[in-house]
């Protein structure tokens, strides 16, 4: 168990706009604190409605040691539950996804319906109260096809994020998209190093030769491309199409549209579209990309023809599971309209390059010579936001015990 007084003391020693003291990146008790106190106080992007296409479709995910399951019910509603049996606590669904008609614990076969109610418990005494032994729910919010979940009531209000992000997301038709591909990378680095790297493009010009073909890797503060006249022209042309640019931000979220490099239609190896059908319902060829990011652990980019999600899930003090997903229009046929290799190549290569950076960062931070260092206020603005969010959320969690 972590010692919250030690964590509060470490937080007091953390300097604003600087990397954190070493224990935050490598100590086992800080990892336990992060997954049990910080992640459970946060809204997590757990998946997409497109991954639960019909009643009985489910997804199971583990947030550190906390397994949860998302299920589409017979009434089409998506619900979330702790993936923990109410008999003796076995994890119920071991597969990452699938379809079922009942939720059956593998251990002694206690059986729950798709709405989480206990409906079968053979050989239990007569008086067992079925109503009191349903699966424990988690909070779920659907936002334009994205499924956000929170494990405890301590997560902040969702409504401000919904109100701000929905107008940006709505034209992308994510609720009627389909999952084209997903990948998992195990990175030997603390999740905060993975996210700090994911929150800046200071390193992008040197490290991401494929990404920088189409993606403007030099951003200033406010997620604006540094070429001011191009930025102004982009804002005005998006205004004509009725697409908001932003950015808009709250304590744990940031949403904004950006122009791609001149002539690029999408993020791909050559900047040309990789899916002929459009995800974005608005016309226009140079509509840039939409980025939405939520703390603690995700960012997404939607371009005209596909959407990409990146989620970093802590699995140990120095290990993170990076899940990537690509969504395309439902009508796009794999192998006919698009190839998964073409669709995924830029972000897959970028992920491998970023893994090397995060693991190398971990190796240096583990050394005796590590001292917290300063962030650049413009090039690392979004890392500073992440660091501010983490210190505030961690302090609140540690104070509340
Ligand atoms: S632990 Fe699930 S049925 Fe016994
Ligand atoms: Fe990167």
Give an overview in words.
The protein is an alpha+beta fold and 401 residues long. The protein folds into two domains: 107 residues, Rieske [2Fe-2S] iron-sulphur domain (Rieske Iron-sulfur Protein, 3-layer Sandwich); 219 residues, Naphthalene 1,2-dioxygenase Alpha Subunit, Chain A, domain 1 (Alpha-Beta Complex). Helices cover 28% and strands 24% of the residues. The strands form three sheets. Strands 1-10-9-4-3-2-5 form a seven-stranded antiparallel β-sheet. A seven-stranded antiparallel β-sheet has the order 11-17-16-15-14-13-12, with helices on both faces. Helix 3 crosses helix 10 and helix 5 packs across helix 9. The radius of gyration is 22 Å and the shape is globular. Fe (ii) ion binds next to helix 6 and helix 9.
Short description:
By secondary structure, the protein is α+β, with helices and mostly antiparallel strands. It has helices at 4-13, 23-26, 28-38, 159-169, 191-198, 204-207, 211-214, 228-241, 340-365, 381-400; strands spanning 44-48, 57-63, 66-72, 78-82, 97-99, 103-104, 111-112, 118-120, 137-143, 146-150, 177-187, 248-250, 253-258, 289-294, 298-302, 307-316, 319-329.
